[in-house]
Write a structure and sequence with these properties.
transport, about 35% helix, ABC transporter ATP-binding protein, ABC_transporter-like_CS, ATP binding, Rossmann fold, 6-stranded mixed beta sheet, alpha/beta, 7 helices
Length: about 260
C-alpha cells in the first residue's frame, strides 16, 4: 500500500470582485511509496505549490482527497514536516529554540528536546551556532535550521517547496547533497517542488512533470541514477539524457503558459 495517496485532487479558487473562478489544479492522482524522493517540476503557476499545500493540510481541495497511511488529511499535522523557500524561522528564537519549537509544543521534557536538537544541529552542520539568532545567519544556514526543525518532529513525510530557490548556486549545490545524505540516513519520504531541472533530476528517484495551468501530471519519469549521488553525476551521459527528456517537456508547457 502507498504511504501517501493523492486521489483526484483538484483546486479551484473563487473569483475576486465578480471575476470568473480560477482552475489552478486539475484532478490529480499520485501514489507515493515509503522512502520515495519525488520531485515535482513545472512552469510557474501550474499548481505545484498548491498540491503541496493540500498535502500539508494548509489548503483544502475542491475535489478529491489525500490519504496518509490510509488516513484522510484534513489539516496540518506533525506527521508532515514542511520547509518553504522563504525563511520561516522565528526571529526572536535562537537556532536551538527554533529547532525545539515543535517539541516544546508537544510538551516534551526539556532534556529530551535538548538531545534531539543537538543531534540535528550536528547533522546539518551548525554546531557552534546553537545560540545565534536567524538574523546572524546566512540564507543557507537559515534553511539548514528550517530543515532541522522539520526533522526534529520525526515526520513521516517531508514537504519542501523550492527550499533552495533563494540561495546562490554554490550553496544550493551543497544543500542538495546535504538533503540527500539526510534522506538516505533517515529513510524519510520526500515531496520536493522545484523549478530547476538539474535539481529535480539530481535529487529524485521519481520526477513528476506538471503541465501549464491548469496543472495536471503530464509525465512521470523514473530517475535510474544510483545512490548515493555525487555532484559529478550531473556530467554523466545518462544525466544528460534524462535532462533532455525533461527539458523538452518543460519547454512545451512553458510555451503554453506564455502563449
Amino acid at each position: 500500500m502507498s504511504q501517501l495517496s493523492i486521489r483526484g485532487v483538484g483546486r479551484t479558487f473563487e473569483g475576486v470582485h465578480g471575476a470568473a473562478p480560477t482552475l489552478a489544479l486539475q484532478p490529480t492522482s499520485l501514489d507515493v511509496a515509503t522512502n520515495d524522493f519525488i520531485t515535482i517540476l513545472g512552469p510557474s503557476g501550474c499548481g505545484k505549490s498548491t498540491l503541496l499545500r493540500i498535502v500539508a493540510g494548509l489548503d483544502t481541495p475542491t475535489t478529491g482527497e489525500v490519504l496518509l497511511d490510509g488516513q484522510r488529511v484534513t489539516g496540518p499535522g506533525a506527521d508532515r514536516g514542511m520547509v518553504f523557500q522563504s525563511y520561516t524561522l522565528f526571529p526572536w528564537l535562537t537556532v536551538r529554540q527554533n529547532i525545539c519549537f515543535g517539541l516544546r509544543e508537544k510538551g516534551m521534557p526539556a532534556n529530551e528536546q535538548a538531545d534531539i536538537a543537538s543531534r540535528f544541529i550536528e547533522e546539518v552542520g551548525l554546531r557552534g551556532f546553537e545560540n545565534h539568532f536567524p538574523k546572524q545567519l546566512s540564507g543557507g544556514m537559515q534553511q539548514r535550521v528550517a530543515l532541522a526543525r522539520a526533522l526534529a518532529n520525526d515526520p513521516k513525510i517531508l514537504l519542501l517547496d523550492e527550499p533552495f530557490g533563494a540561495l546562490d548556486n554554490q550553496t544550493r549545490a551543497l544543500m542538495q547533497e546535504l538533503l540527500l545524505s539526510i534522506w538516505e540516513l533517515h529513510k524519510k519520504t520526500v515531496l520536493f517542488v522545484t523549478h530547476d531541472i538539474d535539481e529535480a533530476i539530481f535529487m529524485a528517484n521519481r520526477c513528476v512533470v506538471f503541465s501549464a495551468r491548469p496543472g495536471r501530471i503530464k509525465n512521470e519519469l523514473a530517475i535510474d541514477l544510483p545512490y548515493p549521488r555525487h555532484y559529478t553525476v550531473k556530467t554523466t551521459a545518462r544525466f544528460m539524457e534524462l535532462k533532455a527528456l525533461v527539458t523538452e517537456d518543460i519547454r512545451v508547457e512553458s510555451l503554453k503558459s506564455v502563449g
